[in-house]
Structures are given as C-alpha cells and as structure tokens.
Specification:
The chain has four domains: 142 residues, HUPs (Rossmann fold); 106 residues, Glutamyl-tRNA Synthetase, domain 3, CATH 3.90.800; 48 residues, Orthogonal Bundle (Helicase, Ruva Protein, domain 3), CATH 1.10.8; 89 residues, Arc Repressor Mutant, subunit A. The protein is built from 21 helices and twelve strands. A hairpin with a 3-residue loop joins strand 6 and strand 7. By secondary structure, it is mostly helical. The chain binds one RNA strand through helix 4, strand 5, strand 7, strand 8 and helix 5.
Length: 464
Amino acid sequence: MSQVVTRFAPSPTGFLHIGGARTALFSWLMARQAKGRFLLRIEDTDRERSTDQAIEAILASMRWLGLNWDGEAVYQSRRIERHNQAVDELVRKGRAYWCECPPEEVQAMRDRARQRGLKPKYDGTCREKGLGPGPGRAVRLKTPLSGSTSYQDLVKGPIVVDNQELDDMVLRRSDGTPTYNLAVVVDDHDMGVSHVLRGDDHVNNTPRQITIYRAMGWPEPAFGHVPMILGPDKKKLSKRHGALSVMEYERLGYLPEALVNYLARLGWSCGDKEIFSRQELVELFSVDNLGSSAAVFDLKKLDWLNSQYIQAGDQARLAGLLAEFVNRRTPGAGRAEDLARVVPLLKPRAKTMVEMADKAGFFVADARSLAYDQKAVDRFLDPQAKALIREFAAALEEAAGFSRQALEQAAKSFLDRRGLKFKALAQPVRVAISGAAESPGLFETMEALGRDQTLGRLKRAADL
RNA sequence: GUCCCCAUCGUCUAGCCUGGUCCAGGACGUCGGCCUUUCACGCCGAUAACAGGGGUUCAAAUCCCCUUGGGGACGCCA
C-alpha cells in the first residue's frame, strides 16, 4: 500500500514568494488529490541566513493560502545527528570516504578542468587513500565512475546524466555538518516522501541525490521539476525583480482563492477551464498536465481572476474584509455592519479589495466632510443644476420611503412634473451625493447612504 | 567552457505521447460594438501564434536531426 507523501521544503532565508508558493501549491494538490500526506520541512541548516522571522512569514503565507500541512513541521537543523549517522554508514559501506584536500586545492582543480574545457570537478585524490576521520577532513561520496544515472521526471520526462558529469560531492563538511544534498535525501527518506516536486533549478541535483539513495540502498521517490516563473520582461522573478512576498498580495487586496487559482493555472492546465474552486483543483489536479516551460507572471490576469472571485464572494465575508481595508486607510472609518450594504454595489466595480476600499470612501465619509472632485463640480454643478438639486432634495423630504424603488418613483414624478428627462438630474445628483462623476447606480447608492446622508449631501452640494 | 532543461497568439495555455477532424481552440489583455443615469459588470465581435532549417511520411504544430534563442546547474550554499 503506497501512500502519496509530498513535502514542501523552504529554506527560511526570506519571505515566501510567488514561485515557492506555487511549488508548495502543486505539492499540496498532489497530496490532497491522492488523499495522501503533505509535509512541511524547514531547511534551516544555514544558520547564518535563516531567521525565525522568515519561518513565521512562510508559515503565515501558507496559512493564508490554505496550504495546510500534516503533522508537525520538521526542522532540518535538529536532525544533524541523524544525517551524520547516514554519512557514517556510507563510509562503513565503502560508498563514501574521508578527504583531506583543502578547499583551495579543490578550487584549483576545478579551474584547471574548466580551462581545458572539461566539467569542473573534484579529481578523486583521496578516493582510494582509505583515510579515517581527522581534523580538517570532509567526507565525500564515491560516485560511480562510469555508466549513467537516469530517472523519469514527472514533468520533464526521461532525464539521463552521464556519471562522469557528477563528481564526488561532499556529504559532510570538515566542520562536521552535513551538506544539503545529503540532508535532503536522508530527510525525504525518513519522512517517507514518495513524490518530490520542486523548482527547476534542482534538476541537476537529482542525479546526485539518486546516487545517494542507491548508495544507502533506499528506494528513490519520484521527482518532478516545475519550471520557474518569469517577470514581465521574461527575466527570472527575484526579490528585487517583481517577486513579491505572498503576503504582499494580501496587502494589495487579492483574495487567497484568486491567487491560488492563478498560481495553479500558471504552468498547469485542464483543458479550457480557467476558474477552479479549491475543491475542483484537488479533484482535477494531475502532474501530467504540468507544463514544462517557464511562465510569465501576468498581473492583469490575476486582476481579472480576483475580480471574478470578488463578484462571486460571500457578502458578509467581503464586508468584513472591506472594513479591514477601509480601516487600514482611515482607522476607525469602516464597520462591517455598515459596509455590508455597499458591498453588492461595489462588487462588480473592484478588481481588488484595495480598490473596493477606495470606492467605498464616499460611503463612509460624512456629508459635511465629503470631498468633492473639483472637475466634476465644475462640469455638473452649475447654478441651474444646484437649483434643481435643492428642489429635488425638498421633494425627497416628502418621500414615503427610502428604498431604491421608492426613490426611483419619487425621482420620476419629480421629473415628470417638470417635464424633464432623467439625464438632467442624474449627473448633478451623482456628484452631489458621491463627490465624483462616477459611482454605482444612483438609487441604490442613495438607498445605501440612507436618508440623512443623502439629503445632507444634496443640500450641501446645492450650496457649494 | 561542460552538462541539463525549455521553445504554439503580447501573456497564460489546449492540441503533441496515440501524425490527418488544426488555413491551430480557450482565457487575460488590446481594439470595436451592444446594454446604459455615470463608472463598472455583462453580452457580441475583431486582433494575434506553431522560432528557423532539414528530413521521415500520401500527410507534421504533432515523429527525428541540426541551428538559433532563452534558462538552469557545475560550492566544504540551500
């Protein structure tokens, strides 16, 4: 009975960016789809660069995206003893050896090889010396000298590398700490990982790691390498080049489900389908449909997806979110209970929550402090229009109710009595109540604003 | 330098494995139109691609080779 076990193994040297999030998502999907397990391992062996802050940031991002992991996160730094045990075993088995070559010398070897047009690699000076442990000595893997190592990449297909391309990599540094390739193999094995999905930049590491699996006599997991994400200029996305932290997208007003949907479709597809609920993603995901070429991150499409999710979003939830975003701008201004009324009006008009908060501005302002767009005022509030607004306000005072239907009815008879078209009233009133030349529908806006705010604004505008 | 990977509209992609139904489909974007009280939403339409060259074949986006272009890896980093 083989269960699918995948893992995400970030090194906490910075925030979780979009590329890492996508690999995590694919691994998560693969596990959930197969009803297997999705594990998290923090590769914090680089003590210099790893920070607790980065760990927290990564975990926060994963939670926000809804990528829940099974069990406790594994911290690689706590497993050093186990890693060294494996190294010892390899030495005992004769599959690894102690090496006393100083790093500078190895570097010189590499330089020489490169000069001769060869693959830079360690020349195996200590391979047959039969050295034991000692100060300044590292342990190297005895890589097969001939033949080739191959595997079936889940996304790229068959990959074959000549063993002569591989050199005797260091498994244990002279300071006694294990190296990355060794640690990954031991951890993946111990954690029971069956499928390794990771970034493209690891393809070259895979044959090396497979060599370690074989030397240990362990079964190898399946490997899949997902292509990287490019910036708009087709350059690799990096911190200083458009790769934002996942949490930055939250701040920009994107919904997690929209980001997840977008990320899933970046490099993966399922026919012509574009919008996937989390449930659908889990059901339909398959590594077979993963693309093999790099993809450009397109913010415009993310915007579109986000607007789709906003339009379909739950009202109460969006009201809560909207309140948060309004408060980020003007603390204390937004209350979810009040905003619930404006959410339906703003839904089709906002691509992000930030934009929605923006457009909600005039709703949360007070009649006395509402800011008027000067251009709109100049254009639509001439003396004649102001007079009309004053009369309209007076008419509304008499109005029976303040529902959009009642308001529409009131406006209609008001205009009929004067033999005017709706056009004569629309823009002036819009500017009066919203402060701008664009807004949601007039009557729904007045309804959401309520009697006091509407009348207050009409009167104030008439006096501008 | 050596090795590995990649290559369909501006972008994400379907199709490629199992050649013909593809003078290449969908989506975002862009442009135009409709709807309309403004702005959006929505709807309709348009735009635009098989990197190049050789093969194989009756037939190639699909198979093979080469070229070009892009990317990655060559650490006692992860």
